[in-house]
Design brief:
The complex is a heterodimer of chains A (278) and B (483).
Chain A: H1 4-16, H2 37-47, H3 51-65, E1 70-75, H4 78-91, E2 100-105, H5 108-111, H6 118-121, E3 124-129, H7 138-154, E4 157-160, E5 164-166, E6 171-175, E7 190-196, E8 200-201, H8 204-213, H9 215-218, E9 225-229, E10 234-235, E11 243-244, E12 251-257, H10 261-269, H11 273-276
Parallel strand pairs in A: 1-12, 2-3, 2-4, 4-7, 5-8, 7-12
Antiparallel strand pairs in A: 5-6, 6-9, 10-11
Helix pairs in contact in A: 2-8
Chain B: H1 9-17, H2 20-42, H3 50-63, H4 65-78, E1 82-86, H5 89-102, E2 107-110, H6 114-118, H7 121-127, E3 131-134, H8 137-144, H9 161-172, H10 180-197, E4 200-203, E5 207-209, E6 214-219, H11 223-229, E7 233-239, E8 243-244, H12 247-262, E9 269-273, E10 287-293, H13 297-302, H14 317-321, H15 325-328, H16 339-350, H17 356-361, H18 367-371, H19 378-391, H20 403-417, H21 419-432, E11 438-439, E12 442-443, E13 459-460, H22 467-472
Parallel strand pairs in B: 1-10, 2-3, 2-4, 4-7, 5-8, 7-10
Antiparallel strand pairs in B: 5-6, 6-9, 11-12, 12-13
Classes of the chains: A alpha/beta (278), B alpha/beta (483).
The complex binds iron/sulfur cluster.
The site of iron/sulfur cluster has 16 residues of chain B, from α14 and α16.
């Protein structure tokens, strides 16, 4: 059933374009039925990518990261990434709360960082963001959601993974999934993202080709909500002076660890609730 | 707050030219961004020609708007979102208020959106008892000052840090400081509370993609992500033309948008929204509404002379290079849209006669067309608008702006059509000009109705004898050695 507001509206457009108001126009030629030749080449390049290519991509990423103030570091393994996060936690002053609080996604790679060890080293609270049970009583679910929101709003650091990172523009790509609230990358003044080397892509063309046609990514497509993040939040609204941390994070750190396909990739690829809760 | 009035163009422009602070800010803005966009187009891997590809993409999208919008609406509804098609400003505002009331909304946070300026949403929400807070830092400053934005992407360029310091001290009670980082921090704190307390977030739409069923919003501050993530309800307003068919087409336009708007390769935040959160998601709005707005656009669509203006992606690149905007600033245009885009689209949306000064004020220098990421021929449309004003136009219900002008040109064409009358006229004029004050061989003042021309400059006087007359008397020396 097409609502009346839509019918009249689209009818006006059709008339303006010289068609009958109720004519149903065939639009199939406007959309893709399969990958274009260019996309096929891009997909091929992605599949053939060697370790050396990956290093090149990382180099390009580091170059592009400089002007947007994204701090990229290469680390050997998740353990080292965990240690680097611990060092950052030490270094950064708590804000907006007076106690240091870290909030981290529920995600295979992040789970492997051993962030639960942090409190032992210093007076830091670590919050995790488990997916909500859709079968749970709505009132309880609401309470849990609110609790997560409060924790995220108080944290001085948010730790997330990412689906991809585009080397060309130093852009992190985050798709929505249960257990991975988008505000973790948004509210805390410091955002740390951890990815594996094989998640670095060349550019937006490659990203979109994968999201459209590569089966394991295309299933979720762009998802309900996808975010591109290129460095910290910025503004130049006061006399054109560049200031970081207008609303979102003041600092964004990206830790790139070596790929470990067997252990780390599983969570990123599945999006259903049951796959995420054990 | 000021209401729209494109009719005060001349007066407002004069005031702006006399304002040294604004002049400095405008010059700085144009120096920073003006050439940056063109440079950024040149560095595109495909080269600057990509602008023309983008033009074709927009042309195709606008020619199939009905198909694309239908597809977008279908996809968003499949994801549990709502889509409303508003034929005019009243429809759109009423829908917003209805939804707000149904959900018991009291506080609204807004991301920057020109189309909500166009429909005057803030004032109307306020009248309905709903507070809407602008959250883009520039827009926030403007709102505190009770003004309207003067640039599409840099709304507060006409404010100095001293103005802003005073505003913040008065409104937030912070200690006086003129340090931009400190001022930004104060705004961050105040606005963070607004974000967390708001029931509804309102955003615009930079571009929608029909194939995937997403709307996208672009920002550098992250305020739009906040406004569309934290409140219970997200309502996005979109001019009906802001859509493309496919993801690969979208990709080209996004790259050009970032370059045109701020000479960036990618804005800091680009968000793709396809619907509300699901029950198992930790955050995101529980309800998502998209309001697609016509408000005069289908009329533009129906006229092939002006359809091209619907290809615009509101990047503001044309403002940053326009010599007229660079002097008179955004407020003179008297409506949400300023600069060359405003000079074309405002008359079409609000009435050509009413906003005639806007299209008459531009210089037709063509800089805007070169800066436009989708290569829109703005000068052509400025001329077409002037044509409707010169002769009247039934479709746009314009009446000739100045009937005497037509008469004057008729007389002129008679004068010039005949050698004899023309020579008589020149003789008479050469004699007649002696009556007017002169400086060197220039006239200081012309008689009405031409006196406006000499208010700021002198008019070259006629030589006592014409070239032809001297030629006939063999007074003109011709170089002999012309090969
Ligand atoms: S007319 Fe072109 S340059 Fe001006 S705002 Fe629109 S897209 Fe940008």
């Amino acid at each position: 059933m097409i609502p009346p507001d839509q019918k009249a509206f689209l009818g006006r457009i059709r008339q303006a374009l010289g068609h009958a108001p109720h004519e149903s126009r065939n639009g199939s030629h406007l959309f893709m039925q399969g990958p274009s030749r260019e996309e096929l080449q891009i997909l091929e390049r992605y599949r053939q990518r060697t370790a050396k290519d990956r290093e090149e991509l990382l180099e390009q990423l580091m170059e592009a990261a400089k002007p947007v103030h994204l701090c990229v570091r290469r680390l050997p393994d998740p353990e080292a990434a965990g240690a680097a996060i611990a060092a950052l936690v030490q270094e950064k002053a708590p804000e907006p709360d007076t106690v240091k609080q870290v909030v981290a996604w529920r995600h295979g790679l992040i789970d492997g960082l051993d962030l639960h060890l942090l409190p032992e080293q210093s007076a830091v609270r670590v919050h995790r963001t488990p997916p909500l049970d859709p079968l749970m009583d709505p009132a309880r679910r609401h309470a849990e959601r609110e609790a997560q929101r409060r924790a995220i709003a108080k944290a001085h650091m948010g730790v997330t993974a990412a689906d991809f990172c585009m080397a060309d523009t130093a852009t992190l790509v985050l798709r929505a999934r249960p257990g991975q609230p988008r505000s973790v990358a948004l509210l805390p003044p410091v955002h740390v993202a951890v990815i594996t080397l094989d998640q670095i892509l060349w550019d937006m063309k490659e990203l979109f080709a994968l999201l459209r046609w590569e089966a394991r990514f295309a299933a979720q497509g762009l998802s309900r909500y996808m975010a591109f993040i290129s460095g910290p939040s910025k503004t130049a609204d006061i006399e054109a002076t560049m200031v970081h941390g207008a609303h979102g994070p003041r600092e964004v750190h990206l830790f790139v660890v070596a790929s470990a396909p067997g252990r780390l990739q599983y969570v990123g690829q599945r999006s259903t609730f049951s796959a995420l809760t054990k | 707050m000021t209401q729209l009035h494109p009719e005060t163009y001349r007066e407002a422009a004069r005031k702006a030219i006399g304002d040294p602070v604004l002049q400095k800010a405008l010059a700085g803005l144009q120096a920073r961004f003006g050439r940056g966009a063109a440079e950024a187009y040149r560095r595109l891997p495909e080269g600057p020609h990509l602008r023309h590809t983008a033009h074709e993409i927009r042309e195709r999208a606008v020619a199939h708007l009905d198909v694309l919008l239908e597809r977008l609406a279908e996809k968003i509804r499949q994801n549990g979102g709502h889509v409303f098609f508003a034929s005019d400003a009243t429809d759109a505002v009423e829908y917003c208020i209805k939804v707000a009331r149904r959900h018991g909304v009291r506080r609204v946070v807004k991301g920057k959106s020109m189309v909500t300026e166009e429909i005057d949403l803030n004032e109307k929400l306020a009248a309905a008892g709903i507070d809407a807070v602008e959250t883009d830092l520039g827009e926030y400053i403007i709102q505190l000052a009770g003004e309207k934005p003067s640039h599409i992407i840099a709304p507060a360029i006409h404010k100095t840090r001293y103005d802003i310091a005073e505003l913040f001290v008065k409104n937030m009670g912070i200690p006086y400081t003129t340090d931009p980082p400190a001022l930004t921090r104060a705004a961050r704190k105040a606005l963070r509370e607004e974000f967390l307390a708001a029931d509804m977030g309102i955003s615009g739409v930079n571009m929608a993609c029909a194939e995937t069923g997403h709307i996208t919003t672009v920002s550098n501050e992250g305020n739009i992500r906040m406004a569309t993530t934290l409140p219970r309800i997200h309502m996005a307003f979109m001019g009906m033309e802001r859509i493309v068919g496919r993801l690969d087409e979208y990709e080209i336009l996004l790259r050009l948008l970032c370059r045109g708007a701020a000479a960036q390769t990618m804005a800091t935040y680009v968000s793709y929204t396809a619907g509300p959160r699901r029950p198992e998601d930790s955050d995101g709005p529980e309800a998502f509404h998209l309001v697609v707005i016509d408000n005069g656009r289908s009329r533009i669509l129906a006229d092939p002379r002006f359809r091209e203006i619907l290809y615009c992606i509101r990047c503001a690149a044309c403002l940053n290079v326009c010599p007229v905007y660079g002097k008179i600033g955004g407020h003179a245009y008297g409506f949400a849209y300023s600069g060359p885009i405003g000079a074309v689209v405002t008359p079409l949306l609000t009435g050509i006669n009413r906003a005639r000064h806007l299209c008459q004020g531009e210089t037709l220098c063509g800089a805007c067309m070169e800066a436009c990421p989708v290569a829109i021929d703005l000068p052509r449309m400025l001329l077409a608008l002037r044509e409707t004003l010169a002769y009247g136009d039934a479709f746009w219900k314009t009446t000739p702006a100045n009937p005497l002008e037509g008469l004057a040109f008729k007389v002129w064409s008679r004068l010039t059509a005949n050698r004899r009358t023309w020579e008589c006229f020149l003789k008479a004029a050469a004699l007649g000009q002696r009556l007017f004050p002169k400086k060197g061989n220039r006239l200081r003042r012309l008689p009405p109705p031409f006196h406006g021309w000499t208010r700021k400059r002198d008019f070259p006087s006629l030589a006592p004898e014409t070239f032809l007359a001297r030629w006939r008397k063999n007074e003109i020396e011709v170089a002999k050695d012309i090969p």
